[in-house]
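Thread: Newbie trying to understand structure tokens

Hi all, I'm a second-year student working on a class project, and my supervisor (Dr. K.) asked me to get a predicted structure for one chain before our next meeting. I've only ever worked with sequences, so writing a 3D structure as a token string is new to me. If someone could post the tokens and maybe explain what I'm looking at, I'd be very grateful. Here's the chain:
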Amino acid sequence: MSEGTHIYRSFLIRVWLQQEPDGRWKWMGEIHHLQKGVIHSFHSLEELVEFMMRVLAQKVQEL
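---
Reply by user tm_fold:
Sure, no problem. This is what the structure looks like when written as tokens:
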């Protein structure tokens, strides 16, 4: 990409801690891809990162 060219992606991310039946706490959340209108639920921070990497890689492949 040339200098001054930018491609933006916007996400709204909600995260919260939820207690499991065994007493452990687990990160949960939703990520809303604002351009596509897609909402994806995740059950760990790793799932959140995987989703974002997948979405961002799709755009790179289209360039």
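A couple of things are worth pointing out once you decode it. Residues 45-62 form the longest helix (18 residues). The CA atoms of residues 10 and 22 lie 36 Å apart. Feel free to ask follow-ups in this thread.
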